[in-house]
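job 3f2a | input accepted
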Amino acid sequence: MRYEHLVIDARECKNNFLDNEEKIRQILDVLSEKLRVNVLRKDVQKYEPQGLTVSYVLAESHMIYHSWPEINAFTLDVFTCGEESPTKIIPDVKEFFKPKEMDLKLITRTLR
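job 3f2a | predicted structure (112 res):
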């Protein structure tokens, strides 16, 4: 079993939906399917005047999205203990958000 935590920091995204709850949930649903994880709960927090946090509690851990539309940036944390590595979603994240810059950190968690 894998215990991996992928941390993505993306800037200068070439889209205008960083603050769109429906679109972000659609994207996170696609990413969840790709990772073959089981979503137990979805929570959303919108901020004024802008900003969005979407958290998915997974049977295999969590996926959390935070946005800063005013600077065209977002973060995405994906921690899984499933069969698929969260790195599998990196090409999809690049395609959906089209960031000019994206920093990736993969942390292998050792629990045994």
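job 3f2a | Helices lie at 21-35, 90-97.
job 3f2a | closed
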